[in-house]
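@channel sequence for tomorrow's demo:
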Amino acid sequence: MERVAMGYRRRLGPVMPVVRRHWVAWVAGALLAGCSTVDTTDFETAASTRSCRYCDLRYDDFSRRDMAGTDFSGAYLFGANLSWSILDHSQFESAILPQAKMEWADFDESNFAKASLEDAMLFKTTLRRAQLRMANLSRANLTGSDLSDAMLLTAVLEGADLTDARLTGADLRSANLRDANLSNSRLRNADFQGSLLTRAVLRGADMVNANFAGAKMKGASFASTYVRRANFRKADLDDADFSGAILDATNLQGASLRRANFRGATLKNVIFHGADLCESIKPDGTLEDPCPEEKKGSPLPAAPTASPAPQDGQIPGAPPGGMGGMGGYGGAVPGGMAPGVPGIPGMPGSPGQSYGVPPSGYPSSGGEAFPGSPSSGTQPIGFRSGGAGAAGDGIGL
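structure tokens (generated this afternoon):
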């Protein structure tokens, strides 16, 4: 029996590993074949029919192809290679293109509305008259790209590199260009109304007839830049750097330029009417007047003052002259108060003193001196015209 068992082990021993290897290879081949079939199908569909809406084309290579007019709406093109391709008049609406390679490609008049292009490589890409409304181009590399007359309304270009880019006539209203680099870019006739350009770099940019009205440009840099016929009306330019710049026929009406730096700048026909220039640095290096302190909430109420010591015959705590026409001790005025109110009965020891009559020298009403007060002046609170005990006067508090 032992010999038989050993014989079976000898025969089956080398067989089992072979079976396992074949099984694993078959399963892996089936899985890989399925994946390649899906990717190849989408790729071939896009290449042949010029339409692949919502296709999964991640990391696919479409470089150096003529695919003008292709519809990639909603397609997933993460990391795809579209470099050197002709894709003008194509549809990329709501497409997913983060980290896509799109250098030297032609996308003229293509539609990228609401597309996601974060960290995409768009070096030397042409996007003339392209539709990029609400597109996300955060941190995208657009160095040397051509976006002439492109629609970038409310687009996000935060941290994007637009060095040497051409944006002539582009519409960037309400766009987000925070921390964007626009050095040496061409911005002639571009519209940046209401856009966000906080800490943006525009050094050496051509801004002839550019419109920055109402833009938020805190800390933006225009150093050594020729700014001609640009409109910055009511723009926020606090802490902006204009050092060494040339501002020619520039409109800064109503702009906020607090702590802005104009050291060494040349100002020709610049409109500063209504601008806030407090603490800004003038071209000669001198400092403007300090900014006024901003009001923080409503002022605190004044601390209450101590009450004067009561005079003889005065009720402690009652203000001088606080009660008009009240009869005093000893019955100086019959009835004491207004008709219908009983008076206080006279008490010995204080003849002739009335409550509410100020002491000697206290200002009285309208130049009329009260008994015992020869002076005249402003009437204390609680007094009305007329002498002490006048009919119908009553308590004036």
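heads up for whoever presents: Helices lie at 2-12, 15-49.
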